[in-house]
TrEMBL record:
It comes from the Bacteria. This is Large ribosomal subunit protein bL33. InterPro entries: Ribosomal_bL33, Ribosomal_bL33_CS, Ribosomal_bL33_sf, Ribosomal_zn-bd. HAMAP family: Ribosomal_bL33 (MF_00294). It comes from Streptomyces griseoflavus Tu4000. One of its GO terms (cellular component) is cytosolic large ribosomal subunit.
Amino acid sequence: MARNEVRPIIKLRSTAGTGYTYVTRKNRRNDPDRMVLRKYDPIARRHVGFREER
């Protein structure tokens, strides 16, 4: 279906090196590049950048 092509499920991995991940969807038309979101890492106990991995 078209749902999986336009808004794929992506995994966001912490840049702090803790291995913590978030799972979300993104719109490929609006964000064709890899996403970086600033979110909370409970292992590091602070907000860090989470980068999209493929």
